[in-house]
Amino acid sequence: MDVQRIIPVLGDITKQDVDAVVNAANNAMRGGGGVDGAIHRAGGPAVLDDCIRRFPQGLATGDAGWTTAGNLPAKWVIHTVGPNHAAGQRDRRLLESCYRRALEEADELGARSIAFPLISAGIYGWPKEDAIRAAVETIVASPSQVGRVALVALDEATVAAIREVLLGS
Ligand code: ADP
């Protein structure tokens, strides 16, 4: 994917006007903290209902799957489970797989725009600079047809760090 299609965005992932928002979910897919909590709060109970219906066994680390977005502006939530660095899961290929698999799901859905948070960079404790590099490298290497990819962060320092990595890509 052309790096020009990746846009750093300061803001809340639940407010993004895109076809698909990516959730930093956990294996159980029954809600959690951080991005996951925010998406379930803003999306409403339809998101959890669809998680239970479509993913009775949850999702493996590094995998991705979609549900309805409920009350969010997006059409779909693409849930993906990053490696829990804080718990000792440090295989970077699993983190890269999250971005690759989420973009594959987006292509299957025909999504034209997608918003990612920095998977694993919060509660799961992946070092932020490397989390940004993994995100950008994997999105750039993807054959995805998605036209616009927002990389969303809550603070200006992180957005500036994303911008830096994009400039060097
Ligand atoms: P993980 O459990 O995969 O680490 P988190 O949800 O804890 O996921 O955090 C992932 C990243 O998303 C962190 O950098 C965190 O600061 C950021 N984040 C948390 N809430 C939001 C939100 N509502 N919108 C955008 N980014 C968010």
- Separation of the first and last Cα atoms: 12 Å
C-alpha-based Rg, rounded: 14 Å
The fold-level CATH name is: Leucine Aminopeptidase, subunit E, domain 1
DSSP helix count? Answer: 5
Helix content: 25-40%
Silhouette: globular
**CATH classification, class level:** Alpha Beta
- Oligomeric form of this entry? single chain
Distinct small-molecule ligands in the complex: adenosine-5'-diphosphate
Structural class: alpha/beta
Which spans have pLDDT < 50 for at least 5 consecutive residues? none
Topology pattern, helix = H, strand = E: EEHHEEHEHEH
Extended strand count = 6
Give me the CATH architecture, please. 3-Layer(aba) Sandwich
Side by side, the strands of the main sheet go 1-6-5-2-4-3
What is the CATH superfamily? Leucine Aminopeptidase, subunit E, domain 1
Describe the largest sheet.
6 strands, mixed
